[in-house]
Design brief:
Number of domains: 2
Number of helices: 13
Number of strands: 7
CATH architecture of the largest domain: 2-Layer Sandwich
Mean pLDDT: 75
Shape: elongated
Strand content: 5-15%
CATH superfamily of the largest domain: Histidine kinase-like ATPase, C-terminal domain
Radius of gyration: 36 Å
Strand order of the largest sheet: 2-4-5-7-6
Largest sheet: 5 strands, mixed
CATH class of the largest domain: Alpha Beta
Structural class: alpha+beta
Helix content: 55-70%
């Protein structure tokens, strides 16, 4: 039966915790009752052999009342407070030390039982279930010290019992911690699954309504021209942003021209998200693709350079796709378009002519980072630029280098155009003037 919902303001649900801890608390409750009965039986059996049987009887009466009156305390973690655990352990240790007073030394040397007997282990186990193996280690150490004091001189049986309760309590505490961690992981996975299902449901509803309306406005606006074309362009941008949102892509806050990248790893998907539009589709993993700041910025700029070539040379109707893959040993980013492709030898010729858009803005950036950039194009079938950055280079922050001044570029050699989302970097992107060049 599922647990009741938790009260507002408290994380988690009590029902979820019951699935892991409640059986342990119930077992501990039963253990305390059974071991109380066992301790009373041992006391009754040895009554005539005790040095002060009435004094021992008084303690056994206290132990009985304490155990039965606190059964509700050990049925849940919320009721089993630190104060209760401290008092409970004090009752157990008092009984162990009192044994040396009410029993004869001969019986103690022969290995006679202590007054609480194995009931003491219940107190230690309560620490283990409540606080894990560290709490169990502290409680079992205190009990072990009391046992050694009660015996006077450590015997083999005493050491055996001490080590046994030590190992058992710490092991149970560790198992409890592992179970709690597993429960949290499972709860998180269920939350993610529920959120994913809800996102998919919303995506279906939005796709059937809002996205289709925005697409129609964009199409009709482009057909009408004039002010309607501007309205269509804005509708296309909103459609792309909404599509990115419902598919799980992040929508970062806009950065001004004077903003700089903060220190610490950056999510490549977040940096690439501004490129998504009606003509650019971004596909990325559902989890962040974290890179060192310099590596993330340079890889983003290389993608911007590739998209800039698409906009300039593939035509207004061309569509581009950005695919981000986070592999164990490398980060791969592919930029593909459906333009006319690149004529064979065109890239080499452009480099010889001093047009270094691909050579420097794309390949040069990846080379400086320790990665590679491969351009694969078939005339008439579009172009694909594959950017590969090894993880060892992506995770290690690059040493700062002085940025050389960029000379002015003649009008006939290409135009410097900052890629979308890269205004903060103010890095010019040089592209080939040949109309056959695509991303």
């Amino acid at each position: 039966m599922p647990g009741k919902p938790g009260r507002p303001g408290k994380p988690g649900r009590p029902g979820m915790r019951m699935s892991v801890e409640q059986p342990l608390w119930r077992a501990l409750t039963a253990y305390r009752v059974l071991t109380l009965g066992y301790a009373l039986s041992l006391y009754a059996y040895a009554y005539d052999d005790l040095l002060h049987p009435l004094g021992a009887g008084a303690y056994m009466a206290v132990l009985t009342v304490w155990t039965l009156s606190t059964l509700g305390r050990v049925m849940s973690a919320e009721r089993c407070t630190k104060r209760f655990l401290a008092i409970d352990l004090t009752v157990a240790i008092t009984g162990v030390l009192l044994t040396a007073v009410v029993d004869t030394q001969q019986r103690i040397d022969a290995g006679s039982f202590t007054l609480p007997s194995i009931w003491t282990a219940g107190s230690v186990l309560a620490f283990a279930v409540k606080g894990g193996w560290r709490w169990a280690a502290v409680a079992s150490t205190l009990v072990a010290a009391a046992d050694l004091i009660e015996r006077g001189t450590p015997s083999r049986d005493t050491l055996h019992n001490v080590v046994l309760i030590w190992v058992a309590s710490i092991a149970i505490g560790y198992v409890v911690e592992v179970a709690r961690a597993s429960e949290r992981t499972l709860a998180r996975a269920l939350q993610i699954e529920a959120a994913t299902r809800e996102r998919e449901r919303l995506a279906r509803d939005i796709h059937d309504g809002v996205l289709q309306v925005l697409a129609m406005v964009q199409r009709r606006g482009n057909q009408a021209g004039g002010e309607a074309a501007e309205l269509g362009r804005m509708a296309g941008e909103q459609e792309a942003a909404l599509r990115t949102l419902i598919t799980g892509g992040p929508l970062p806050e806009a950065r001004g021209a004077d903003d700089t990248l903060a220190a610490g790893p950056h999510d490549l998907t977040t940096l690439l998200a501004p490129y998504a539009s009606a003509s650019v589709t971004l596909s990325a993993p559902g989890t962040p693709v974290l890179l060192a700041p310099d590596a993330a910025a340079e890889l983003t700029a290389a993608v911007g350079a590739a998209l800039d070539n698409v906009r300039r040379h593939a035509g207004a109707g061309a569509h581009a796709w950005i695919l981000v893959e986070d592999e164990p040993d490398a980060v791969l980013v592919s930029v593909r378009d459906d333009g006319p492709g690149i004529a064979e030898g065109r890239l080499a010729a452009a480099e010889d002519e001093g047009r270094l858009g691909v050579a420097q803005s794309i390949r040069g950036r990846l080379r400086d980072l320790g990665g590679t950039a491969v351009v694969d194009s078939v005339p008439g079938q579009g172009t694909e630029v594959e950017l590969r950055l090894p993880r060892r280079a992506a995770d290690a922050p690059a040493a700062p280098e002085p940025v050389p001044a960029v000379p002015a570029v003649p009008a006939d050699a290409g135009t410097a155009v900052p890629a979308a989302g890269e205004a903060a970097r103010a890095v010019p992107v040089l592209s080939e003037a040949d109309g056959s060049r695509t991303a």
